[in-house]
Amino acid sequence: MLAYLHSQRPWPLVCFGLVLAACEGRPPSQETAASGVTAGGITTIGTGADTGGASSGGGGSGEIKFDVGMGTGGSDCSEGGNCPECTVPEHAPCDGNNDPIAAIGLNCPGEPTVEIQNTVPQHPGAIGVRSNFGTAGVFVPREGEKFAVLGSGFIADLDNVTPEADAATGHAGPTHCNDDLGPEYDPGTMLPPPLMTNDVGAVDCTEDPSLIGTGDCSNTIQGQFSQGNSANDYTEIRFSATVPDTVTSFSYDFAFFSTEYPYYYGSAFNDMYVGWLQSEIWTGNVSFDEMGNPISLNAGFLDYRDDAGTLPALAGTCMRYHAGTKWLSTTAGVVPGEQITVVFAIFDLSDSILDSYVFLDNFQWGCDGDSKPTTKPVG
């Protein structure tokens, strides 16, 4: 069984999936819909209470159920207590305008809302939306009609095609996507709180919950950040949210690109993307590969490397001759009803030029809160 996950809440402990966490009490009279059926704007995952492997109501599937809540008198749901199932709020895309938050899939009418936080300076030219990228149809919206874009440079540059002349210098100084946003966007050796660059230790926070709040629970940022040790042209989207009390996770899709490739690949100019979660059971990066590599120039998922300038996926853009990832999807567990802060952040390392970008889309609440955060290619 996975390690016990820490909670600072004074509530009774209940079980969702294979991980113990604190959940708010819910009255036993609350109805839940049958598997695959939508009721009251909520789509139910599974049927009946967890009875140790078999679902009640005749399903007999044996699949694990994600119990969220407490029965009468606070009985433990982990052994078939009177608990509702994990249910996912319905979502209808609302990104017809140019709002990056709506483009990600947040704050749509009638759905759970998040509070946008503007706590650090943001260059308006480094945040926006798109409906496509490249010529191969690879980078199209994952949800709705648009996706959000963050850059350590100006997003308007993305449609400027890398000229052949750049090859003469080995792409050391790209003609496009090579901007300095200004010194007011350079946090230096310390990322804006609550982001922390230090590892929590030899293990992560799922193995030792006492480490929560002491640093990056994933132990993935420090090794790459220390190569340059100075964050510049920092851009973020940050929001706080009350986790719906019927879910145990959230997920979102993203793709990362950098003009630092190929000339500065393997160097200290190691631009990075961080997806930070501040919660009761995790404080740290949630977007990293299975080997513990973060999303950066020098590590993890850099699948599109356009050395010859011929990849259709990057054609017609400033990333021609440079590199990017596929669409990736991160899933992170949360505690039903808790307050969380999420930060999507991108920045240059060591310098303030040769820009990097991240596309963000398809934020969803879910029922996968049974393990530590994971990131996998979409597909």
Give structural notes.
With 379 residues, the protein is mainly beta. It has two domains: 1-90, no CATH class; 100-377, no CATH class. 2% of the residues lie in helices and 26% in strands. The strands form four sheets. Strands 7, 8, 10, 14, 15, 16, 18 and 19 form an eight-stranded antiparallel sheet that branches. Strands 6, 9, 11, 12, 13 and 17 form a six-stranded antiparallel sheet that branches. The protein has a three-stranded antiparallel sheet with strand order 3-4-5, with no helix packed on it. A hairpin with a 2-residue loop joins β3 and β4 (42-44). The protein is globular and about 60 Å long.
Outline of this structure?
The protein contains 2 helices and 19 strands.
H/E topology pattern: EEEEEHEEEHEEEEEEEEEEE
In the predicted model, the low-confidence regions spanning at least 5 consecutive residues are 1-82
- Report the total helices: 2
Number of strands: 19
- Secondary-structure-based class equals mainly beta
Distance between the termini: 28 Å
- Tell me the quaternary state: single chain
Task: Label the overall shape.
Answer: globular
Question: How many domain modules?
Answer: 2
